[in-house]
Amino acid sequence: MDIVLSLKDAEWIATQYPGLKIDMTNKCIVGDIYLNRTYNGTTLTNIFSIKVMLELLPNMVLPKVYETSNKLQNIANELGLSKIEDIHVNSDESLCLAIYGREEECFSDKFTIKEFFENCLEPYFFWVSYYEKFGKPPWKDYAHGGLGFVEMYAEDRLTFREVQQKMSLREISKYLYHYDYVKDKCLCGKNKDMKQCHSDIYIGLKKFKEKWKLARVS
Q: Could you read off the pLDDT of 110-131 as tens digits, one per residue?
């Protein structure tokens, strides 16, 4: 489904983001986004080259966004991260702007381009810029894919059934039967025990595995 921009939307983009251009032929917004954002007393400025696709794919709430100048890869390299996924870039190189199932929280009602930029894009680029400058994220972020749901389960933000619904059986099997969260090193790739490295995932996997055993018995 195409995202239709109104004249008001176009004027707002031109005013707030003069480095961006709307390309209706290719159904996208392209150019540079100039970040100037404050969070908890810290103001950061930065520039990112982006491409926002003006379409929503089936079962998607947010449009795909790509960083087009390789800046994110350079930041990941400077931070010594083994995978660009660690700064929330998906395998198709689009940005991971919100955990699956919580994208609607970006909007007061339905999708608007203004709230998308203000509540999804800018916070993402602030998060990356803060990480780049200070070597740590400015706020808690959830892991990619099923492990993010496991973290939310550890915090009681999701029920056992909701986690089952959001994760594939293949993924559940991987974490429950092919990975020892007690003995194996953390899934993030660091040579640390999961309990010390990503304690929420450790707690969530332990809790989920215990519940899974009970469910299988009953």
A: 899 999 999 999 999 999 999 9
Tens digits of per-residue pLDDT, 13-52?
Answer: 999 999 999 999 999 999 999 999 999 999 999 999 999 9
**Distance in angstroms (rounded) separating the CA atoms of residues 214 and 208:** 10
> In angstroms, what CA-CA distances link 208 with 19, 76, 169, 183, 203?
47, 31, 13, 17, 8
User: What's the length of the chain?
Assistant: 218
- Are 197 and 186 in contact by the 8 Å Cβ rule? The answer is yes
Instruction: Answer yes or no: are the C-beta atoms of 41 and 14 closer than 8 Å.
Output: no
CB within 8 Å of 193: residues ≥ 6 apart: 185, 186
Look up residue 91 and give its two tokens.
């395998």
Q: Which of 141, 151, 135 is nearest to 199 (CA)?
A: 151
Helix axes 169-177, 145-154, angle to 10 degrees: 70
